[in-house]
Amino acid sequence: QFQLVESGGGLVQPGGSLRLSCAASGFSLDYYAIGWFRQAPGKERMGVACINCNSGSEFYIDFVKHRFTISRDKDKNTVYLQMNSLKFEDTGVYYCAARRLDRGTSFRIFNANDYEDWGQGTQVTVSS
Question: Mind listing the pLDDT tens digit for each residue in 17-42?
């Protein structure tokens, strides 16, 4: 069964850190791009990082560069998002999403519409 399961969210103070996990089952991450998205209350889902996208590289949206790190453990078939120096505006539900690499159509790596499968999300709240 194709499934993505996020975990690791929680409440953290500004400046703190969290590590999110996205465990994949039913498929190999080798054949998929994996993106992390954030959805703040009342706002659209926004891409923040992508791994195995466009020839295996990692990409970050500007406002998380040098604070967030996306990585992958092939043995565990899991993608991680290490989030450091968290800010109030990082609050939201974080989702991981998958897209097959062989789709052959243009791929906007931070556009939620270009991904096929989603996890259920994990809440991150940055508050003092």
Answer: 999 999 999 988 889 999 999 999 99
